[in-house]
């Protein structure tokens, strides 16, 4: 996908070894992030995130649904990711399907926890409206506009931003449903403090880097995505790429990811609140 | 966009004062805005907005033909893919890629753009046009064509002329320019026109529902004016873009 000459490959690899990457970053530095909220008016919550050249949109739609009989007190969340052909001709037709599925399943694992929904990043109990009868169905959808590496982190960050805005509109739709008797009139904003972010550490040579670009990703031997919430708890793990990783390195990576996530969450939170203030002001 | 709600007689699409549901005059376009260069990876890209309809187009090429069997020896191969984001419509519908509607629109866009690209200048190459609908509120076809024109121009692909497109309908005995989703769903006729504004040639014409000859003539005149207005705007965007490029180059 990326055409790199041998010289360029050496340059990128050598840079990573010396802790100075080709765009001037260090191994554990992110590219500049910018967040825009409320980009899709049809959705209950939406955000667009740009991380360097990577550009993704995520939307959340809330619908009234019926909970499954196995978990009558829980809402349902579905996550899907779509890789648009505009991002790269490779995604044309069914070409993007494999990557889309890989990303959405990884995201699902990171945000939704196990089958029972226990330990999920999103608190499914809070989506319950009336036990066994009515619950909220959340549809989280991601769309990749421009791919330049590190899609998973970007999408993970986005689902994080999308969610808090859901219930702003949720109150309206709730009132349209005649049998739903909403007693609390004020907005129930979702508790997003426990929604995790996804940090991917890509292993190139002996070292691992954060927020890899497309060129750097073409070098990756393996990558581990860790989803961590603001309390520092690990919510999910995904290993991607073919090469094996030493078990001790995995633990090392997790602790590094935890350290990085603290900064990342802080930066993201400030970006989101700035974007929301911007939206409210305009 | 694709689900037509049955004709509802009780809705008045034109108020006694002659204003439409969204406050426009019958011969008024929605607010249009365009921006070049939304996708850094592409050779040329553009965002085009018509009211609440928003599409992104990206152009890759001219480049080597990917599927060798499709190569044409005396002209370029033009391909197009149209896709709709799941969240683009009011109610959530999951659409698979490559359903009949999007295949048809892809074909329409491809044929329309092929008419203006100087394909003979780039033999044995391939040009890919991808359009992605982010918000659908009627007139996605026209918006896609306008976005594709801008993206092609931004990619520096030789063209005979721009193609601009616009739609119009006929409701309550009045021709209405640039229908939105509600007006489009009314079940009345919908005429979509694509023209080469300088050469004054029609490259795309689609109409549904029946329409008397006289009414069609007035609709056609209105929609031609609409296309010209869009063309003026697109030209101004391109001129501004070229100025920016000039500035950056320090000429």
Protein described:
The complex is a heterodimer of chains A (282) and B (251). Chain A is built from 6 helices and 10 strands, in the order αββββαββααββαββα. Chain A has 282 residues and is of the alpha+beta class. Chain A has a single domain, classed as Ribosomal Protein S5, domain 2, CATH 3.30.230. In chain A, the strands form 2 sheets. In chain A, strands 1, 2, 3, 4, 5 and 6 form a 6-stranded mixed β-sheet that branches. In chain A, strands 8-7-9-10 form a 4-stranded antiparallel β-sheet, with helices on both faces. In chain A, β1 (33-37) and β2 form a beta hairpin. The longest helix of chain A has 35 residues, at 247-281. Chain A is globular. By secondary structure, chain B is of the alpha+beta class. Helices cover 28% and strands 28% of the residues of chain B. In chain B, α1 packs across α2 and α2 (140-154) packs parallel to α4 (213-249). Chain A binds chain B through residues 40-43, 46, 53, 55, 57, 59, 61, 63, 80, 82, 84-89, 92-94, 97, 139, 141, 143, 145-148, and chain B through 38-42, 45, 52, 56-58, 60, 66, 81, 83, 85-90, 92, 97-98, 128, 130-132, 134-135. Chain B: Belongs to the RNase PH family. Chain B: InterPro entries: ExoRNase_PH_dom1, ExoRNase_PH_dom2, ExoRNase_PH_dom2_sf, PNPase/RNase_PH_dom_sf, Ribosomal_Su5_D2-typ_SF, RNase_PH. Chain B: Keywords: Cytoplasm, Exosome.
CATH topology assignment of chain A: Ribosomal Protein S5, domain 2
Oligomer: heterodimer
Radius of gyration of chain B, CA atoms, in whole angstroms: 18 Å
Tertiary shape of chain B:
globular
Principal-axes geometry of chain A comes out as globular
* CATH topology (fold) name of chain B: Ribosomal Protein S5, domain 2
Q: Determine the fraction of residues in helical runs of chain A and give it as a percent range.
A: 25-40%
Helical content of chain B (DSSP H or I, runs of 4+)? 25-40%
Q: Which class do the helix and strand fractions of chain A yield?
A: alpha+beta
First-residue to last-residue Cα separation of chain B: 46 Å
The CATH C-level class name of chain B: Alpha Beta
Helical element count of chain A? Answer: 6
Unreliable segments of chain B (pLDDT under 50, ≥5 consecutive)? none
Structural class by helix and strand composition of chain B: alpha+beta
The CATH superfamily of chain B bears the name: GHMP Kinase, N-terminal domain
The biggest sheet of chain A, with number of strands, parallel, antiparallel or mixed sense and barrel status, is:
6 strands, mixed
User: CATH architecture of chain B, please?
Assistant: 2-Layer Sandwich
Distance between the termini of chain A: 41 Å
Estimate the strand proportion of chain A: 25-35%
Task: Round the mean pLDDT of chain B to the nearest integer and report it.
Answer: 88
InterPro entries (chain A): ExoRNase_PH_dom1, ExoRNase_PH_dom2, ExoRNase_PH_dom2_sf, Exosome_comp_Rrp42_subfam, PNPase/RNase_PH_dom_sf, Ribosomal_Su5_D2-typ_SF
GO molecular function (chain A): mRNA 3'-UTR AU-rich region binding
Protein name (chain A): Ribosomal RNA-processing protein 42
Pfam families (chain A): RNase_PH (PF01138), RNase_PH_C (PF03725)
């Amino acid at each position: 996908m990326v055409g790199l000459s041998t010289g360029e490959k050496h340059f990128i690899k050598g840079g990573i070894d010396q802790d100075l990457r080709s765009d001037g970053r260090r191994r554990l530095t992110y590219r500049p992030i910018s967040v825009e909220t409320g980009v899709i008016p049809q959705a209950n919550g939406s955000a667009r995130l740009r991380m360097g050249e990577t550009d993704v949109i995520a939307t959340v739609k809330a619908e009234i649904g019926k909970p499954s009989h196995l978990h009558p007190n829980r809402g349902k969340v579905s996550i899907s990711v779509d890789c648009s052909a505009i991002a790269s001709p490779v995604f044309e037709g069914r070409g993007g399907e494999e990557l889309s599925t890989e990303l959405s399943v990884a995201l699902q694992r990171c945000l939704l926890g196990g089958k029972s929904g226990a330990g999920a990043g999103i608190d499914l109990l809070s989506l319950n409206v009336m036990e066994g009868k009515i619950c909220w169905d959340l549809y989280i959808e991601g769309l990749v506009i421009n791919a330049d590496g590190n899609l998973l982190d970007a999408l993970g960050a986005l689902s994080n931003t999308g969610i808090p805005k859901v219930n702003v509109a949720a109150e309206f739709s709730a009132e349209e449903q005649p049998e739903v008797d909403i007693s609390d009139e004020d907005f129930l904003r979702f508790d997003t403090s426990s929604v995790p972010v996804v940090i991917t550490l890509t292993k190139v040579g002996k070292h691992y880097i954060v927020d890899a670009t497309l060129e750097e990703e073409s070098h990756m031997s393996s990558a581990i995505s860790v989803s961590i919430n603001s309390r520092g708890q690990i919510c999910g793990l995904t290993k991607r790429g073919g090469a094996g990783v030493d078990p001790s390195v995995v633990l090392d990576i997790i602790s590094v990811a935890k350290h990085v996530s603290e900064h990342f969450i802080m930066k993201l939170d400030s970006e989101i609140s700035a974007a929301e203030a911007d939206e409210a002001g305009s | 966009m694709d689900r037509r709600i049955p004709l509802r007689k009780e809705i008045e699409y034109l108020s006694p004062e002659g204003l439409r549901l969204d406050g426009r005059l019958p011969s008024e376009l929605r607010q249009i805005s365009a921006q070049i260069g939304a996708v850094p990876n592409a050779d040329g890209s553009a965002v085009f907005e018509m009211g609440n309809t928003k599409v992104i187009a990206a152009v890759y090429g001219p480049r080597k033909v990917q599927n060798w069997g499709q190569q044409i020896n005396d002209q370029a191969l033009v391909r197009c893919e149209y896709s709709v984001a799941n969240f683009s419509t009011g109610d959530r519908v999951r659409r698979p890629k490559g359903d009949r509607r999007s295949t048809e629109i892809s074909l329409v866009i491809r044929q329309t753009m092929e008419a203006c690209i100087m394909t003979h200048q780039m033999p044995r190459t391939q040009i890919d046009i991808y359009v992605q609908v982010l918000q659908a509120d009627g007139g996605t076809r026209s918006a896609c064509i306008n976005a594709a024109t801008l993206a092609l121009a931004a990619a520096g692909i030789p063209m005979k002329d721009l193609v601009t497109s616009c739609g119009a309908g006929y409701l309550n005995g009045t021709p209405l320019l640039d229908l939105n989703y509600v007006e489009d769903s009314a079940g009345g006729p919908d005429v979509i026109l694509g023209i080469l504004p300088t050469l004054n040639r029609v490259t795309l014409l689609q109409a549904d529902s029946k329409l008397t000859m006289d009414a069609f003539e007035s609709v056609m005149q209105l929609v031609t004016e609409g296309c010209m207005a869009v063309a003026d705007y697109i030209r101004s965007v391109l001129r501004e873009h070229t100025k920016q490029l000039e500035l950056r180059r320090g000429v």
